[in-house]
Amino acid sequence: MGVLPEPIEELLESALVGELTVVDPTGGLVTHPLIPLYDGELIYLTSSVLFSKKLEHIKANPKVSLSISDPVAVKVEPFRRATIQGDAVVDDSDLHSGWEERVLPLWRKKEPAIDFFLAKRVALPLFFERGIIEIRPRRAFLWEDGRTDRAPQVFELAEAVH
Amino acid sequence: MKPSPELLAGLGDRFEHAIIAFMDDDGYPLSVATDFRADAERGVVTLRAVAGDEVQPPEDEQVNVVFSHIRPQPGIGYDERRYVSLWGKLQRADGELVLSPERVLQWDEQEMPFFEFSERGVPQARRYFEALSAETGREVRPKLAFGWLFLRATRLPFLSATFVPVLLGIAVAALRGGFSWWLALLTVVGGASIHLGINVMNDVFDTRSGADAANVNPTQFSGGSRVIHYGLVGMRSMVLLAAAFYAVGIGIGVLLAALRGWDLLWIGVAGALIGVFYTAPPLRLVHRGLGEVAVAVGFGPIMALGAYFVQARHYALEPLLASIPVAILIALILYVNEVPDRPGDALAGKRTLPVRFSKETIVRGYEASVVLTFALIAVFAISGLTARPTLLALLAAPLALPVRRALWESYDQPYALMPAMGKNIQLHLVTGLLLIVGYVIAIVADHALSNPPFFLS
User: Fold this and answer.
1) Does B107 share its domain with B167?
2) Across the interface, do A129 and B131 touch by the CB < 8 Å criterion?
């Protein structure tokens, strides 16, 4: 068992997409659909340098929110939804292969087709130059039946994590 | 930009849920999913209110509402990727939340293919590398394994354009009395070196002219190698690489001329001039709609005649005639590959034929050129101007049909054209190989039979 409640861990392990919200330099919010990965302690997302504004935003303001709520891209029974707030760090020390070493095994487990695309790296070289976003969860919200018109369970995680 | 009524009207059909993202009291973003319905006439999106004090979106403050959809496809990944991001203020009305969107950002892979979406991100990628280099105090640039990088930078698979005419010229010479393995090998290496030099130099000039940056629809077959544009290789390295290929090619050419006759230099000089001025100023042949002619001459008669001369020590009509169908087909490769490039080419002032003429004219031109190609093969072979077994090459003609169909049906869809571009390359390769096979049959018959029948000569 990891740092998050089990129903949320199941969501993270199943979700093909999560919506990451970051803060831009004006204080506005920008939300990006990304594939979330989880190792029991941190949540990982990766971003190609082609779409790297979010990496710049996180470097300037690490506060983020991740929603796992898509009824099509999340296959858990019973369906539920969660939001995780946290502090993010960007690891762009090795854009070329750092993400392969650190998160590819998690990615492959969730989406085996990644190997097929990675084999065609020569066709889209910049797409596979990727920064890693590591989110340390701070607080989580869980809607057991997915209905957000009912109040969520709230989990304060900051103390547990640190 | 405000979202259009059409965009709002379509939200309900395209998305299953919405996510409201707002700033909480601790200064963290907070995102909550909910149901929605859009009212295009009023220009608003009504969101079901969420419950719980900790997750209440604020009124009269900017929030971000996102609609996202992706369809998992087990085993192959996913498709139907799309999202719409709206910004605006929320108001409460009748127990619901009403968003009046002021700004929109969106992507739908059915409207903008993923490759184009990615290509439009290249300037951001370059900025990121520059910022990271400044931050770390060392140059950070994208990488690719050496073998892949070499293949990409030189566009190695396109070497078939050289192998076909060179081997054809050698085959004609072999039938008419002259053949040396090591001279053939040197000719192939020399021709390939010049070709690779042209490819690399072409990328240098396309980057300098802005054609690479302006083209957001490159494909596997068109749009150049883009290694400079992507930052994978520096401009200087590419210039040096081109110079190295030219040096090898010219060195072999001079050696062959010294060994076999200085008249070879005429062909060599003509080929080099066409290669350099294909994209280089002041001629910039491809910018003037003369790219097809330049490529046809360079990768048809020049290569075939040069290869023939090396073996036979003289020029002749037959290799020239045999190479004309190959010349037309190689020009058609460029011609079709320029179709998806035309918006970028037009922006960079590269006035290729597809930039200059309408779809109707371009497709009709393709059809006429293919018919001419196979008619010439038949006429030359039947009349005995080329070896009669080269009639075999007519078998390749059906390969042009899917290309023609795709041009009519997918002229404005670069990625839908990709299979046709591949088929068009096959058309050149298979036709060329069958012409060569035709000559090999004639050579075998000539050696095996004392008096070969006319259809084998």
Assistant:
1) no
2) no
